[in-house]
Specification:
This protein is an alpha/beta fold and 335 residues long. It contains 14 helices and eleven strands. Strands 1, 2, 3, 4, 5, 6, 7, 8, 9, 10 and 11 form an eleven-stranded parallel β-sheet that branches. It comes from Streptomyces umbrinus.
């Protein structure tokens, strides 16, 4: 099981520690470093900055939001950075949810997410393989554009720049069972939002047709500390926000996932509290058991035991979310 460093997205402003952390992870033998985006900092610019100040570590997007860019634009970003970094890019993509797609990007959330994802990946792959001009008679991503409001003058094109790698790895952030199953057919890997080594059966059917070499790369907060309950507080804060605030009361993919993992009543309660403006109560309502299952928190010996459970399942890459150098070093030693 390889280790990756997950840096996430910026909050109020850029973190001065992201580049030093990436350099430390590279020194410790971590395989990859990953950035993210929501409705603030973008995913590619920080990764390019990190690429310029590292030499070996792979560079992943976890995730680049599909609504933010057309598939050809995303492919351009990936092939450009892949050249500049010497072939280190891993392209993680995700749809996000209706609240962000329509509220931030000002675009309709696709009525058929599976089809939209499939078409998006198809176009990206066509660009990267550069075998012919990009053409797709799609429902969401037609190339050339054939809509009634177009001129009809669009021409099928292939990239001027020759991509460095035709088979640059593409991973998808998928949550629903059908979406995960499709991911095993059209992508090189999967970026689970929450992974519990105690509940691998939740994903067993969806991953049943995964090919040899398919990547499973969940993100997990980690913290070496004596007080487990205190160490879990940042995990619970993150869950309170995602379960309660990242979506509509009637359509929240993160809350639905928590429910499928055996915590349905708790997920709905967190939503209820968060949407009522009682955010601190929403965080406290997150069960310690759930937060603990999807993270690596506690003394070194406890983390070592938990790490063995992560290794026994299908996880190929563990993306560690931790700004703490002691924790990063401990995981590198234990792995």
């Amino acid at each position: 099981m390889r280790l990756g460093l997950a840096l996430g997205y910026w909050g109020r402003g850029p973190s001065a520690d992201h580049v030093p952390l990436a350099q430390e992870a590279e020194r410790l033998g971590y395989d990859s470093v990953w950035t993210a985006e929501s409705w603030g900092s973008d995913v590619f610019t920080p990764l390019t900055w990190i690429a310029a100040q590292t030499s070996r570590i792979k560079l992943g997007t976890a995730i680049a939001q599909m609504a933010a860019r057309s598939p050809t634009t995303t492919a351009m970003h990936a092939l450009t950075l892949d050249h500049l970094s010497g072939g280190r890019v891993m392209l993680g993509l995700g749809l996000s949810g209706p609240q962000v797609v329509e509220g931030w990007y000002g675009r309709p959330f696709p009525k058929s997410p599976l089809t939209a994802t499939r078409e998006y990946v198809d176009v990206v792959r066509q660009v990267l393989r550069r075998e012919a001009p990009v053409e797709l008679d799609g429902r969401f991503h037609s190339h050339p554009y054939r809509g009634e409001d177009g001129t009809g003058l669009g021409k099928a094109l292939k990239p001027i720049t020759h991509p460095l790698r035709a088979e640059l790895p593409i991973l998808l952030g998928a949550e629903g069972p059908k979406n995960i199953a499709q991911t095993t057919r059209i992508a090189d890997g999967w970026l689970p939002l929450y992974w519990s080594p105690f509940r691998t059966d939740v994903y067993e059917a969806s991953l049943g047709a995964a090919p040899e070499g398919f990547l499973v790369a969940p993100m997990a907060r980690a913290k070496v500390c004596d007080d487990v309950a205190e160490g879990l507080l940042p995990v619970k804060a993150m869950l309170g926000f995602y379960i309660g605030g990242m979506g509509h009361a009637a359509r929240n993919f993160h809350a639905d996932l928590m429910a499928r993992m055996g915590f349905e009543e708790e997920a709905r309660r967190i939503q209820e509290l968060f949407l009522a403006g009682r955010r601190e109560e929403a965080v406290l309502a997150v069960p310690d058991a759930f937060a603990d299952e999807i993270s690596l928190v506690g003394p070194r010996e406890r983390i070592a035991e938990r790490l063995e459970l992560w290794r026994k399942g299908p996880v190929t890459d563990l993306l560690v979310l931790s700004p703490d150098r002691l924790t990063l070093r401990t995981l590198a030693e234990l792995n």
